[in-house]
Amino acid sequence: MAAIEFRGVTKRFPDGTIAVDDLHLRIEDGEFMIFVGPSGCGKTTALRMVAGLEQPTSGEILVGDTVVNDLDPVDRDIAMVFQNYALYPHMTVRANIGFPLETQRMPKPEREQRIAEAAALLGLEGLLDRKPRALSGGQRQRVAMGRAIVRHPQSFLMDEPLSNLDAKLRVQMRAELVKLHQRLGVTTLYVTHDQVEAMTLGQRVAVLDRGIVQQVDPPDVLYNRPANTFVASFIGSPSMNFLRARSDGRSISFGGFTLPLPQAVAARLRRREGEVIVGLRPEYFSDEGGQAGGPAVPVTVEVTEQLGSETLVHFRIDGVSAESISADTEAALDGAFVARLDPRSRPVPGDVLQLSVDVERAHFFDPADGSTLRRPDA
């Protein structure tokens, strides 16, 4: 096993597009690191540079203590799991898993032992004589994993390996990947655009936007202490609500409403006066008579979504516009806010609700650059 390190890595394509911009990041030995971000953010390009499928324009990439910039992919001792499985259709599962070992001219007894170990680890023992067309999507993905595992590589690179699976299989495979990493402990770089995958799989998550790392932290820190509005909007589903307000250091005002700030929140806001962007996650609202821990605001219901375990309510506040900051524009309903309420709440469009706001948990951002206004130690 080995760490992976990016030292000032930049990738500029011939047309001038900068896919990755001055990336400095170390993935520790045995760590499960996620690169997440929207399409075109540079996450796959970064992974392909580690694999040797793209050449950095500048900077160094290290695997262990070795700079691998000039090494061929086959010499980097890295196994890659692709989005499309990349299985050989004419070969059996056994032959697909063992193919990398055969190309290394490994003796057959050792090769068969490794295939058996990988198959047992992935629950493929009864499928070794089948061909890929006779397998389900989840089984094919496990075969692709087996082909990577059997090599005993220093590191795994995974490029959106679950994106072709249906929702139920994705949940199952996420759990299997976590268990697999716990057993093998191999350094893993996993690329996805799905923030649910990022939050459930990663020991640390790097959020990228336009080739630049916005924040690297464990999932709970990303969710509860986002560095800027991009991270705050990208991590979490439904996305965080944003609105512009004015602060006098003791309260915030918007649309004719004034919400007093608890002393701890005012201190976190650093007694800032003037315009601020307020971030409120959907669960910071409540319609249960102040249970959210703050004063109530009257809102008009536009759409409700009954999801069984929760009710999502899209609503408007008179005189207040939701800020168009969300990284997931499809999650917003034409500028409406969204609240996550108890599943027993069943408002209908047109209802006026009194929603209390948990100001204690609110996030505050600088409207100039979107950076958090939280004190570094708060």
Walkthrough of the structure:
The protein is an alpha+beta fold and 378 residues long. It folds into two domains: 4-232, Rossmann fold, CATH 3.40.50; 239-365, OB fold (Dihydrolipoamide Acetyltransferase, E2P) (Beta Barrel). It has helices at 43-51, 93-103, 108-122, 137-149, 167-184, 195-201, 219-224, 229-234, 263-268, and strands at 4-12, 18-27, 32-36, 58-63, 66-67, 78-81, 155-159, 187-192, 204-209, 212-217, 241-248, 251-254, 257-260, 273-280, 285-286, 296-306, 311-316, 337-341, 352-357, 363-365. The chain has a six-stranded mixed sheet, sandwiched between helices. It has a five-stranded antiparallel sheet with strand order 13-12-11-14-20. A hairpin with a 5-residue loop joins strand 1 and strand 2 (18-27). Helix 2 packs across helix 3 (108-122), helix 2 (93-103) packs parallel to helix 4 and helix 3 packs across helix 4. The longest helix is centred in the middle third of the chain and has 18 residues, at 167-184. It is elongated, with a radius of gyration of 24 Å. The two termini are 36 Å apart.
Main attributes?
single chain; 378 residues; alpha+beta; Rossmann fold; OB fold (Dihydrolipoamide Acetyltransferase, E2P); 6-stranded mixed beta sheet
| Total number of helices | 9
Evaluate the radius of gyration.
24 Å
CATH superfamily of the largest domain, by name, is: P-loop containing nucleotide triphosphate hydrolases
Q: What does the average pLDDT come to?
A: 89
Sequence stretches where pLDDT stays below 50 over 5 or more residues = none
Strand order of the largest sheet: 6-7-8-3-9-10
Q: How many strands in all? A: 20
- The total domain count is 2
First-to-last CA distance = 36 Å
What do we call the CATH topology of the largest domain? Rossmann fold
Strand proportion, as a percent range, falls in 25-35%
Under CATH at level 1, the class of the largest domain stands as Alpha Beta
What kind of sheet is the major sheet? 6 strands, mixed
Look at the helices and sheets and give the structural class: alpha+beta
The best one-word shape is elongated
Sketch the topology as an H/E string, one letter per element: EEEHEEEHHHEHEHEEHHEEEHEEEEEEE
Please bin the fraction of helical residues: 10-25%
